[in-house]
From TrEMBL:
<dbReference type="GO" id="GO:0005829">
    <property type="term" value="C:cytosol"/>
</dbReference>
<feature type="domain" description="Cytidylate kinase">
    <location>
        <begin position="6"/>
        <end position="214"/>
    </location>
</feature>
<comment type="similarity">
    <text>Belongs to the cytidylate kinase family. Type 1 subfamily.</text>
</comment>
<dbReference type="GO" id="GO:0036431">
    <property type="term" value="F:dCMP kinase activity"/>
</dbReference>
<dbReference type="InterPro" id="IPR027417">
    <property type="entry name" value="P-loop_NTPase"/>
</dbReference>
<keyword id="KW-0547">Nucleotide-binding</keyword>
<dbReference type="InterPro" id="IPR003136">
    <property type="entry name" value="Cytidylate_kin"/>
</dbReference>
<keyword id="KW-0418">Kinase</keyword>
<keyword id="KW-0808">Transferase</keyword>
<dbReference type="GO" id="GO:0015949">
    <property type="term" value="P:nucleobase-containing small molecule interconversion"/>
</dbReference>
<keyword id="KW-0963">Cytoplasm</keyword>
<dbReference type="Pfam" id="PF02224">
    <property type="entry name" value="Cytidylate_kin"/>
</dbReference>
<keyword id="KW-0067">ATP-binding</keyword>
<dbReference type="GO" id="GO:0036430">
    <property type="term" value="F:CMP kinase activity"/>
</dbReference>
<feature type="binding site">
    <location>
        <begin position="10"/>
        <end position="18"/>
    </location>
    <ligand>
        <name>ATP</name>
    </ligand>
</feature>
<protein>
    <recommendedName>
        <fullName>Cytidylate kinase</fullName>
        <ecNumber>2.7.4.25</ecNumber>
    </recommendedName>
</protein>
<dbReference type="GO" id="GO:0006220">
    <property type="term" value="P:pyrimidine nucleotide metabolic process"/>
</dbReference>
Length: 222
């Protein structure tokens, strides 16, 4: 396909979601929050009461998610669940089911369907390595676990949710372990990805850096 894709992969709270949204707006591209699909699956699993280890039923739910996105709002059927899928409980469940190969495969068609003109910015953990291996630009966005824990803590406070910094830090370390050690699509930089450390850059600086890389790459290909 001749539709350009920018992938931004990285661990939880590395800033990839915010960066990807702003960059998509700057380029007038579509945006895919692949993590939201896993969170939506986790929410559906928790609500259905099925066994969280029943990979077959979870994959069935994932393959037919009745979801859609309206700018920064996320809907499951007609219900807005933007905030509901951002809880720590849903995040932890999403991380666990994301380790199931059958669930990851069930979501690939849904994810690739977001590739539409004029282009797509996709963030996640395997966007550049598995879902869009032919992406024009691949970014691996990282940050120290302390910086990420602080960011997550502030995000939760802004939503009126209180949590413990040490607990958040432990959760991030555990999620990183699950994401990097899973057999199916582990969290690793694509071989042709550009690694950026957002610990030392602001959101605007990160967006501008990726924007310049994309323009440079596009000019080289033209």
């Amino acid at each position: 396909m001749n539709i350009p894709v920018i992938t931004i992969d990285g661990p939880t709270a590395s800033g990839k979601g915010t960066v990807a949204q702003i960059l998509a707006g700057k380029l007038h591209f579509h945006y895919l929050d692949s993590g939201a699909l896993y969170r939506l699956t986790a929410l559906s699993v928790m609500r259905s009461g099925i066994n969280p280890d029943d990979t077959g039923q979870i994959a069935s739910i994932a393959s037919s998610l009745p979801c859609h996105f309206e700018k920064q709002r996320i809907f499951l059927e007609k219900e807005e669940v933007t905030d509901a899928i951002r809880t720590e409980a849903i995040g932890n469940m999403a991380s666990k089911i994301a380790a199931f190969p059958v669930v990851r495969r069930a979501l690939i068609n849904l994810q690739t369907g977001f590739r539409k003109a004029p282009g797509l910015v996709a963030d996640g953990r395997d966007m550049g390595t598995v879902v869009f291996p032919d992406a024009e630009l691949k970014i691996f966005l990282t940050a120290s676990v302390d910086v990420r824990a602080e960011r997550r803590y502030k995000q939760l406070l802004e939503k009126g949710i209180s949590d413990n910094m040490d607990s958040l830090r432990r959760d991030l370390i555990e999620r990183d372990r699950r994401d990097t050690e899973r057999k199916e699509a582990p969290l690793v930089p694509a071989v042709d990805a550009v690694t950026l450390d957002s610990s030392v850059m602001s959101i605007d600086e990160t967006v501008e850096r990726i924007f310049r890389l994309f323009v440079q790459k596009s000019n080289n290909c033209s």
